[in-house]
Amino acid sequence: MSEMNAMKSEIIDMLITLIPDAVKEIQVPIEDKVCYIALYRSDSHPLVGLIQLGIETRRNKMKDEAGIWGAWNSGDQPVKHQNDLNDELLKEKLKRLLEICGESGGYEGEWYEAEWWIRCTEIMNEVSLKLNEYEWNSYFKNITDDFVVYVDREDLDVENGDLELCVPQNKLKLLKGKGLV
Description:
The protein has 5 helices and 4 strands, in the order αββαβααβα.
Protein backbone atom coordinates (compact mmCIF):
# COMPACT_ATOMS: atom_id res chain seq x y z
CA MET A 1 0.00 0.00 0.00
CA SER A 2 1.38 3.39 -0.92
CA GLU A 3 2.10 5.99 1.73
CA MET A 4 -0.78 8.08 0.32
CA ASN A 5 -3.28 5.23 0.65
CA ALA A 6 -2.03 4.31 4.12
CA MET A 7 -2.36 7.93 5.31
CA LYS A 8 -5.84 8.25 3.79
CA SER A 9 -6.90 5.04 5.55
CA GLU A 10 -5.53 6.24 8.90
CA ILE A 11 -7.32 9.59 8.56
CA ILE A 12 -10.61 7.92 7.60
CA ASP A 13 -10.41 5.61 10.63
CA MET A 14 -9.71 8.59 12.92
CA LEU A 15 -12.58 10.65 11.54
CA ILE A 16 -15.02 7.75 11.88
CA THR A 17 -14.27 7.87 15.63
CA LEU A 18 -13.76 11.61 16.14
CA ILE A 19 -16.91 12.85 14.38
CA PRO A 20 -19.45 10.82 16.40
CA ASP A 21 -17.59 11.82 19.58
CA ALA A 22 -17.83 15.50 18.56
CA VAL A 23 -21.53 15.07 17.73
CA LYS A 24 -22.15 13.79 21.27
CA GLU A 25 -20.95 17.16 22.59
CA ILE A 26 -23.39 19.22 20.49
CA GLN A 27 -26.45 20.69 22.16
CA VAL A 28 -29.28 18.64 20.71
CA PRO A 29 -32.68 20.24 20.21
CA ILE A 30 -35.38 18.83 22.46
CA GLU A 31 -38.50 19.46 20.42
CA ASP A 32 -37.21 19.76 16.85
CA LYS A 33 -36.07 16.84 14.73
CA VAL A 34 -32.50 16.53 13.51
CA CYS A 35 -32.46 16.04 9.73
CA TYR A 36 -28.73 16.05 8.95
CA ILE A 37 -25.16 16.31 10.08
CA ALA A 38 -23.19 18.61 7.80
CA LEU A 39 -19.42 18.11 7.73
CA TYR A 40 -18.34 21.57 6.60
CA ARG A 41 -14.97 21.92 4.93
CA SER A 42 -13.05 24.72 3.24
CA ASP A 43 -9.61 25.41 1.81
CA SER A 44 -8.42 26.29 5.33
CA HIS A 45 -10.05 23.13 6.77
CA PRO A 46 -9.82 20.56 3.96
CA LEU A 47 -11.12 17.68 6.04
CA VAL A 48 -13.79 19.01 8.38
CA GLY A 49 -13.74 22.38 10.07
CA LEU A 50 -17.22 22.35 11.52
CA ILE A 51 -19.88 19.79 12.34
CA GLN A 52 -23.38 21.26 12.11
CA LEU A 53 -26.68 19.63 13.00
CA GLY A 54 -29.54 20.42 10.65
CA ILE A 55 -32.88 21.12 12.30
CA GLU A 56 -35.90 20.05 10.24
CA THR A 57 -38.03 23.15 10.89
CA ARG A 58 -35.15 25.41 9.87
CA ARG A 59 -34.36 23.29 6.79
CA ASN A 60 -37.99 23.50 5.67
CA LYS A 61 -38.12 27.26 6.23
CA MET A 62 -34.91 27.78 4.27
CA LYS A 63 -36.17 25.54 1.45
CA ASP A 64 -39.33 27.67 1.24
CA GLU A 65 -37.28 30.88 1.19
CA ALA A 66 -34.29 29.88 -0.95
CA GLY A 67 -35.11 26.59 -2.66
CA ILE A 68 -33.06 23.41 -2.52
CA TRP A 69 -29.83 25.34 -1.98
CA GLY A 70 -31.30 26.89 1.17
CA ALA A 71 -32.36 23.52 2.54
CA TRP A 72 -28.74 22.35 2.53
CA ASN A 73 -27.04 25.59 3.58
CA SER A 74 -25.75 24.49 6.97
CA GLY A 75 -24.57 28.03 7.67
CA ASP A 76 -28.21 29.01 8.18
CA GLN A 77 -28.66 26.49 10.99
CA PRO A 78 -28.41 27.57 14.67
CA VAL A 79 -24.83 28.00 15.92
CA LYS A 80 -25.72 26.29 19.19
CA HIS A 81 -26.03 23.00 17.28
CA GLN A 82 -22.43 22.80 16.05
CA ASN A 83 -18.99 21.66 17.08
CA ASP A 84 -15.52 21.52 15.59
CA LEU A 85 -12.76 18.95 15.49
CA ASN A 86 -9.64 20.08 17.26
CA ASP A 87 -7.55 16.91 17.43
CA GLU A 88 -3.79 17.41 17.32
CA LEU A 89 -3.02 13.96 15.93
CA LEU A 90 -5.51 14.53 13.11
CA LYS A 91 -3.81 17.85 12.34
CA GLU A 92 -0.44 16.07 12.17
CA LYS A 93 -1.82 13.42 9.83
CA LEU A 94 -3.40 16.09 7.62
CA LYS A 95 -0.09 17.94 7.50
CA ARG A 96 1.66 14.72 6.40
CA LEU A 97 -1.01 14.06 3.77
CA LEU A 98 -0.48 17.55 2.38
CA GLU A 99 3.27 16.91 2.25
CA ILE A 100 2.71 13.64 0.39
CA CYS A 101 0.57 15.58 -2.10
CA GLY A 102 3.39 18.06 -2.63
CA GLU A 103 1.70 20.91 -0.77
CA SER A 104 4.37 23.07 0.83
CA GLY A 105 2.47 26.15 1.87
CA GLY A 106 1.43 27.56 -1.48
CA TYR A 107 -0.18 26.33 -4.66
CA GLU A 108 -0.65 27.50 -8.20
CA GLY A 109 -4.07 27.85 -9.79
CA GLU A 110 -7.39 27.07 -8.16
CA TRP A 111 -7.16 25.36 -4.77
CA TYR A 112 -10.07 23.04 -5.55
CA GLU A 113 -8.03 21.57 -8.42
CA ALA A 114 -5.00 20.84 -6.22
CA GLU A 115 -4.16 17.21 -5.48
CA TRP A 116 -4.42 17.78 -1.71
CA TRP A 117 -8.01 19.05 -2.09
CA ILE A 118 -8.96 16.12 -4.30
CA ARG A 119 -7.50 13.60 -1.82
CA CYS A 120 -9.23 15.29 1.13
CA THR A 121 -12.49 15.25 -0.85
CA GLU A 122 -12.11 11.50 -1.40
CA ILE A 123 -11.49 11.01 2.32
CA MET A 124 -14.49 13.06 3.40
CA ASN A 125 -16.85 11.43 0.90
CA GLU A 126 -15.84 8.00 2.19
CA VAL A 127 -16.21 9.12 5.81
CA SER A 128 -19.67 10.51 5.06
CA LEU A 129 -20.80 7.30 3.36
CA LYS A 130 -19.61 5.26 6.34
CA LEU A 131 -21.25 7.60 8.86
CA ASN A 132 -24.53 7.26 6.96
CA GLU A 133 -24.51 3.59 8.01
CA TYR A 134 -24.58 4.54 11.74
CA GLU A 135 -27.70 4.22 13.86
CA TRP A 136 -27.96 7.92 14.71
CA ASN A 137 -31.19 7.26 16.66
CA SER A 138 -28.95 6.41 19.60
CA TYR A 139 -27.53 9.96 19.47
CA PHE A 140 -30.75 11.90 18.94
CA LYS A 141 -34.23 11.43 20.41
CA ASN A 142 -35.95 13.01 17.41
CA ILE A 143 -34.57 12.23 13.98
CA THR A 144 -36.21 12.53 10.57
CA ASP A 145 -36.75 9.52 8.35
CA ASP A 146 -34.62 11.26 5.69
CA PHE A 147 -31.68 11.97 8.04
CA VAL A 148 -28.27 12.02 6.34
CA VAL A 149 -24.66 12.88 6.96
CA TYR A 150 -23.16 14.90 4.11
CA VAL A 151 -20.04 16.84 3.16
CA ASP A 152 -20.72 20.56 2.95
CA ARG A 153 -18.67 23.38 1.47
CA GLU A 154 -19.22 26.96 0.38
CA ASP A 155 -19.96 26.08 -3.24
CA LEU A 156 -22.04 22.95 -2.61
CA ASP A 157 -24.22 22.31 -5.64
CA VAL A 158 -26.97 19.93 -4.55
CA GLU A 159 -29.03 20.47 -7.68
CA ASN A 160 -26.16 19.23 -9.85
CA GLY A 161 -25.34 16.09 -7.89
CA ASP A 162 -22.83 17.02 -5.19
CA LEU A 163 -24.69 14.93 -2.59
CA GLU A 164 -24.43 11.85 -4.78
CA LEU A 165 -20.77 11.46 -3.82
CA CYS A 166 -21.32 11.42 -0.06
CA VAL A 167 -24.88 10.15 0.55
CA PRO A 168 -25.97 6.55 -0.19
CA GLN A 169 -28.36 5.98 -3.08
CA ASN A 170 -31.22 4.70 -0.90
CA LYS A 171 -31.16 7.92 1.14
CA LEU A 172 -30.87 10.08 -1.99
CA LYS A 173 -33.96 8.38 -3.39
CA LEU A 174 -35.90 9.27 -0.24
CA LEU A 175 -34.66 12.90 -0.39
CA LYS A 176 -35.62 13.11 -4.08
CA GLY A 177 -39.09 11.84 -3.24
CA LYS A 178 -39.47 14.74 -0.80
CA GLY A 179 -38.19 17.30 -3.30
CA LEU A 180 -35.01 17.96 -1.32
CA VAL A 181 -32.58 17.12 -4.14
